């Protein structure tokens, strides 16, 4: 809440980055994976240190950015009151791809000194554990996460709901039956939905999961629900690198195309997109024929549905791009093919490239300089003989050390 700090903020202070006229401040950036748990305990600790900023918390972002997954992970963490997971339904998704069906919320726990101390003790104990000391269930779950991502963390709860063992749940209806009922089939017990008490929510602060913001120039808006599931990565992306000479073309499914038009030397093109999207390399003379013949077919995969599907799908629109290489180990730029993924281009130093990139009409094609992952082309295996492709080289999984994520 920067409005309370305006008097103390210097206009060029990078910590607050205040924008005059708006009560907005960027105070932290976190790399997290709500799916594998990486960085989540650190995020919870950082959010707890923001308790002094009065107000609710909202998860904002574009559709399909993972807000609901983040909401569900925070729901079962120390950020949420211990009783809430038993009361609140997990985030559900509507039939329209990427949109949350209902506006969900959960009450945020008050990070008192005692709770922060107990949480730090739990994180220290878990950080001291080796994988050999984990239970069979924990090992199995951890191995599943490793298959989904390179960076893996564990999200736990310090505070559990305490249930009294002295209460006797006595229901006289379960001990009797009418003449019309079979005693061997007792009536089902009526289960009342558990609710928060007035005292629990009267001064509560809430974390909201909001509907996704629909981007007008996003390729996902053109796809069916089945196609969206293929385009959105469900596991960690394995980079695929190809070496192209002038006169060659790279297809990312039928959603993107990059032509290498002019240059003196070969260049490297590293594709970062869903592992389910096929990548095909061909010559410039054959590219149009391949697109016309195989679009909406299994060869290019997305879109799918044959000729009828392509009647409503927009054509690919070109954009010329000029790049100058900076070395064979460092990419010069990313060509972002809307939300289908991006291609990092690596070329010899001072080598000038003329490229032509295509995306469906109405979607955004962006050249990102500098690239997000400049050394991505070095994460590759041996060259596959007789092809422009390199073998994929998947980095080993990294399990986060929870000792570094405690509250300060």
From TrEMBL:
Coiled coil ranges: 113-140
Region listing for Disordered, in residue ranges: 171-196
InterPro entries in alphabetical order: GTP-bd, Mito_transl_resp_regulator, NOA1/YqeH-like_C, P-loop_NTPase
Domain NOA1/YqeH-like C-terminal residues, every copy: 269-369
Keywords for this protein: Coiled coil
Basic and acidic residues: compositionally biased ranges: 184-196
Domain spans labelled G: 57-107
Gene Ontology molecular function terms on file: GTP binding
Lineage top rank: taxon: Eukaryota
The keyword Coiled coil is annotated on this UniProt entry: yes
Gene3D superfamilies found in the cross-reference section: P-loop containing nucleotide triphosphate hydrolases
This protein's record includes keyword Coiled coil: yes
Full protein name: Nitric oxide-associated protein 1-like
Species of the source: Cyanistes caeruleus (Eurasian blue tit)
Lineage: Eukaryota, Metazoa, Chordata, Craniata, Vertebrata
């Amino acid at each position: 809440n920067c409005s309370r700090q305006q008097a103390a903020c210097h206009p060029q202070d990078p910590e607050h980055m205040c924008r005059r006229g708006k009560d907005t401040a960027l105070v932290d950036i976190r790399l997290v994976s709500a799916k594998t748990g990486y960085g989540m305990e650190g995020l919870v600790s950082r959010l707890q240190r923001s308790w002094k900023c009065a107000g609710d918390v909202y998860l904002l972002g574009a559709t399909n950015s993972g807000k609901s997954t983040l909401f569900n992970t925070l729901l079962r963490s120390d950020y949420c009151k211990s009783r809430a997971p038993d009361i609140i339904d997990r985030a559900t998704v509507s039939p329209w791809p990427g949109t949350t069906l209902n506006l969900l919320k959960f009450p945020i726990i008050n990070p008192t000194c005692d709770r922060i101390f107990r949480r730090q003790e739990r994180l220290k104990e878990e950080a001291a554990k080796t994988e050999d000391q984990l239970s069979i269930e924990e090992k199995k779950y951890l191995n599943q996460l490793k298959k989904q991502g390179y960076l893996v963390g564990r999200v736990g709860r310090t505070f559990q709901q305490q249930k009294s063992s002295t209460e006797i749940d006595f229901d006289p209806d379960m001990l009797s039956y009418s003449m019309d009922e079979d005693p061997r089939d007792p009536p089902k017990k009526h289960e009342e939905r558990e609710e928060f008490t007035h005292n629990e929510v009267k001064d509560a602060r809430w974390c909201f999961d909001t509907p996704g913001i629909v981007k007008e120039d996003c390729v996902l808006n053109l796809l069916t629900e089945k196609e969206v599931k293929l385009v959105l990565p469900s596991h960690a992306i394995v980079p695929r690198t190809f070496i192209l000479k002038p006169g060659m073309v790279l297809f990312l499914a039928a959603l993107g195309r990059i032509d290498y038009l002019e240059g003196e030397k070969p260049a490297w093109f590293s594709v970062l997109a869903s592992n389910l999207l096929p990548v095909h390399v061909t010559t410039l003379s054959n590219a149009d024929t391949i697109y016309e013949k195989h679009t909406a077919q299994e060869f290019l995969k997305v879109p799918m549905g044959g000729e009828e599907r392509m009647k409503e799908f927009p054509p690919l629109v070109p954009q010329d791009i000029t790049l100058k290489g900076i070395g064979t180990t460092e990419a010069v730029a990313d060509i972002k093919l809307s939300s289908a993924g991006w291609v990092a281009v690596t070329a010899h130093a001072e080598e000038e490239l003329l490229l032509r990139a295509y995306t469906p009409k109405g979607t955004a094609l962006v050249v990102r300089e500098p690239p997000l992952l400049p050394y991505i082309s070095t994460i590759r295996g041996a060259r596959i003989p007789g092809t422009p492709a390199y073998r994929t080289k998947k980095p080993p999984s990294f399990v986060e050390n929870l000792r570094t994520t405690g509250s300060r």
